[in-house]
Amino acid sequence: MNIDINIGSFETFADYFFDGLIADWMVQSKINDSLTRVYNIDSDISSLLKTLTKESNDLENELFTVQEEIKKLIED
What we know:
The protein is mainly α.
């Protein structure tokens, strides 16, 4: 038994076209998800950097205060 199925040119075009759209949509979705994760990580890093900068400034101020107290003790 021999069965031939002829797919017309429009059907072939539609198959490639819609398959391409679905694949493009899936890839674009993954790109958007990745971009969202990158933005979230960037925000987390910015927040962490701000916190570390504040802590560093606080420690520098504390160090300066301690050094001044040591100077006063030595001078007295």
